[in-house]
Structures are given as C-alpha cells and as structure tokens.
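Narrative of accomplishments. A recurring question from our advisory board has been how the design workflow behaves on a single, concrete structure rather than in aggregate. To address it, we present the structure tokens for one chain from the evaluation set, followed by the sequence designed for it. No filtering or post-editing was applied between the two.
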C-alpha cells in the first residue's frame, strides 16, 4: 500500500505543480467560450458598411421610404446597409440597368444591388445582388423589404394605416424554461451551457486518458517501468497511474468550481449593469461534471492503459488508439440529437452507452432533461463497464508491462486473458 501511495503522490504532484497545468486550468474556460463569444463580439463592432442601390420599378412612391424605416428600426449588429434609391420607369429594361450596376459590384465588394420589379406586389420576389451573399446580417435587410411590401399591399387595399402597423408587427416569441428551480427566460443560454459542458467533459476525459497511455509508453522506453516493477506489484503501478492522473483532473474541476463561484458573484452584478443576462451554470452541474469525468476517465484511461502496456512503440500505440479517438468524436457529431429532443427514446439510449454516456448524459443534465433514475442507471452502467475494463487491464497489464520491443497480436492478448 505504501508503494502505491508513493507512486500515486508522484504522479499527482509532478503534474499539478507544472506551470502548464496552472495555465491550462486558468485558460481552458476562456478558450472554450471564446469560439462562441468572439464572432458575436466581432459582429457587434459593426465596422463595415454596404452601399445598396435599390432599383425600384414598383411604381409605389412610399415603398422605398418604408424599407428604409424598417431597416433603421431593426437596430441589428453587423453590416450597416446604406440604401440609395434609383427609380426605373416601367417601360425601361430593368435587367439592362442592373447589368451595368453588377459590373461595378464585381470590382467593389462593399456594394450591392436590390431589385424591386414592377410586379413586386403580385408575388415577384425581391432580388439581392452582391459579391458576398453569406453575410449573417443579410436577413435583416430581407425582413425589412418583405415587411414593407406587406405593409404597402395592405395600404393599397385601403386598410387603415394604424391597423397596418398592428397587423404587420412581428411579435417575437419568448421561450421560458421550466424546471424544478423555477421559470427563467431563455435566450440561448441553455444551448451555450450545454455546449460548454460537452466540450469540457470531452476534452478532459480524452486528454487525461491519453496522459495515462503516454506515461506508460515513456516509462517503458526509458526502462523506468522495470525499476518500478521490482519494488511494486503491477496492479499497484496500474492503480497509481489511474488514480494519480485522475486526481489531477478532479483538481482541475475543483479549480473551475472555485472560478465559477467568483464569476457568479462578480458577473451577475456587472451583467445587470450592462443590461444583459449571464448564462446560469448551477454548481450542481459542476458536481455532475466531476462525477461523469471520473467515470468516463476511468473507463477510457483503463483502455488507454492497456494500449500503452501492449504497444511496443509510440507509433503502434497511436494506431491502436485511433478507433477509440473516433469513438470519442461520435458524441460531438450527434450532440444535436440530444439538443433537439433530450428526453426522447433515442437520446435516452445514446446517453446509456458507456463510451458516449459521459458527454451525452451530461448534456441531458445541463438541459434538465434527465430524471434521477436515468442518471443513477447510467452511473451503474458506467461502473459495471469500468469493472470489466479493470478486470481485462489487470490481466493484460501484468504480462505486457515488461515486454519491451515485442510486437504483440490480438491473439496473444486473448491468450493472456484466458490463462493469466
């Protein structure tokens, strides 16, 4: 027991005391949030303008002004559209006029053309010509145009102008999340929190599991593992690797929980002052993250430990771990299934699969869609899977620990499992 504790303490302290661990603990939350907040921040700068020539052949003198007012009232962040009207008589060839303008658009990316044909009120779609049609703020212009056309249709049919405003006003639906903690207005916070949860669990489980494999491979190559084997049993070496690295991960989660408390205390008041609402990340979510990190880590790390024990070279280990890496990527590819219907049968089944459970169940928990009995059942399945993987590892690790330089086949590994 003393040998195991000594090796465990070394595995833990060597990694926790590194500057890299401290920096990654502080910077990881920032790096995970940045890909989501940075585009929003850059769009909010609203540094670009686009000159839009409106070729108006509608014959309605009020249409252009209404489009301009609707666009001004949208107050959207991003590209600012500056509209200039060019009236095209009904008898003129509008396409010929547009062709001369599109030649200029090719040379100037900050220019565009909006075409309103003479039958625009009879169902003809407005047309937008530009070198860039992937602008995220383009729907704002589209909404302003279609809303103005609808308003002018009603006005041309003799409807009261005051009623036109009432009938054409678009009322955005407010989503209110109902949970055991009460009701909260939802503006995308749940989506952001669920994505952060799945990224954090995925990154830590796969990252720390890989550390176990690389640690075994490094010590096998430097022959340190042979010295450890002379003073401790193989299962003690295995236990010290798994527990030592796992405690490093839990330490990181504890640090994040502390940072989260600081953010909750300081961030809420700042957010209220700035006029927006922070995404709520309850501390129970950090608690569940720690549990499912530990379960996912012990499952994956045990498999990686087996790979490190039987691989003779780092190249062999990378080949063996590739299927596991692909298996880890699968939850990142199908997370939208959970997001769309977190309580559906398919979501429940996926969240019970051992290799998918840490990320998929955590996503369901973050969306408040996992009842207690399903969480408990998932934990039992994970624990059972870990016990099976430890049983396999205890037999393979003992025989593969000192076989340095020998290329092993799966048949030999099966032989160890039968007779060791």
């Amino acid at each position: 027991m003393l040998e195991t504790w000594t090796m465990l303490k070394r595995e833990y302290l060597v990694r926790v005391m590194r500057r890299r661990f401290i920096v990654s603990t502080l910077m990881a939350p920032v790096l995970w949030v940045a890909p989501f907040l940075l585009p929003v921040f850059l769009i909010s700068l609203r540094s670009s303008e686009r000159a839009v020539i409106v070729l108006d052949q509608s014959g309605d003198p009020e249409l252009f002004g209404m489009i301009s007012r609707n666009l001004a009232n949208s107050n959207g962040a991003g590209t600012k559209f500056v509209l200039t009207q060019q009236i095209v008589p009904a008898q003129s060839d509008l396409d010929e006029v547009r062709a001369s303008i599109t030649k200029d658009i090719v040379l100037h990316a900050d220019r565009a053309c909006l075409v309103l044909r003479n039958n625009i009120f009879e169902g003809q779609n407005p047309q937008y010509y530009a070198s860039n049609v992937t602008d995220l703020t383009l729907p704002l212009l589209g909404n302003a145009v279609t809303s103005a056309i609808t308003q002018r249709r009603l006005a041309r049919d003799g409807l009261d102008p005051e009623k036109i405003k009432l009938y054409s006003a678009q009322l955005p639906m407010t989503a209110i999340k109902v949970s055991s903690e009460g009701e909260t207005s939802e503006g995308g916070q749940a989506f952001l929190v669920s994505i952060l949860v799945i990224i954090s669990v995925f990154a830590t489980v796969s990252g720390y599991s890989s550390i176990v494999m690389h640690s075994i491979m490094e010590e096998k190559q430097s022959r340190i593992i042979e010295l450890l084997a002379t003073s401790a049993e193989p299962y003690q070496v295995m236990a010290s690797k798994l527990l030592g690295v796992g405690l490093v991960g839990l330490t990181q989660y504890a640090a994040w929980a502390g940072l989260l408390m600081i953010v909750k205390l300081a961030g809420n008041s700042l957010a209220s002052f700035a006029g927006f609402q922070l995404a709520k990340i309850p501390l129970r979510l950090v608690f569940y993250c720690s549990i499912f990190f530990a379960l996912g880590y012990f499952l994956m790390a045990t498999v990686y430990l087996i790979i490190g024990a039987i691989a003779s070279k780092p190249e062999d280990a990378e080949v063996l771990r590739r299927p596991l890496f692909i298996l880890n990527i699968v939850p990142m590819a199908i997370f939208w299934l959970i997001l769309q219907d977190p309580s559906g049968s398919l979501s429940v089944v996926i969240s019970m699969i051992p290799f998918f459970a840490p990320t998929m169940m955590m996503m369901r928990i973050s969306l408040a869609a996992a009842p207690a009995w399903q969480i408990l059942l998932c934990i039992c399945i994970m624990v059972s899977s870990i016990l099976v993987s430890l049983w396999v590892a205890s037999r393979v690790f003992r025989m593969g620990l000192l076989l340095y330089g020998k290329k092993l086949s799966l048949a030999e590994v099966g032989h160890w499992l039968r007779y060791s």
